[in-house]
Amino acid sequence: DLGYDTVMANLMLNHGADERTYEVAQAILEDLGLGQIRLLTNNPDKIEQVEKDSQIKVIERVPMMPKSWEAIVQGTEADFVVREGAVQDKIVKGKELDKYLKVKVERMRHMISIPTTMA
Fold this sequence. Notes:
Protein name: GTP cyclohydrolase II
CATH topology of the largest domain: Rossmann fold
Distance between the termini: 23 Å
GO molecular function: cyclohydrolase activity
CATH superfamily of the largest domain: GTP cyclohydrolase II
Number of strands: 4
Structural class: alpha+beta
GO biological process, one term: riboflavin biosynthetic process
Largest sheet: 2 strands, parallel
Helix content: 25-40%
CATH architecture of the largest domain: 3-Layer(aba) Sandwich
Radius of gyration: 17 Å
Pathway: Cofactor biosynthesis; riboflavin biosynthesis
InterPro entries: GTP_cyclohydro_II (IPR032677), RibA-like_sf (IPR036144)
């Protein structure tokens, strides 16, 4: 990856910053007759695409907070201090994950608060 973030790496490959589309998900939701949904996401583009040209309305966005970030916010970070990159109770903590998520927030409009100690 040569050290480039997700957005820059995609752009350097002449791809869009995020080329994911949600037409299939939208079609499945419509086929199931779901007009209103709660959507587990931090991605505003996902909400916009699911609602675009459809009868589906996202009535609630359920935010996703990484457990390691949640621990920082709650002041319980010491409970999650493990070897970097290690998986313990399905909690992954590491600089690469933090960097990746910060890019999502700072460059892709993701709706999640970066802990002040990391900003």
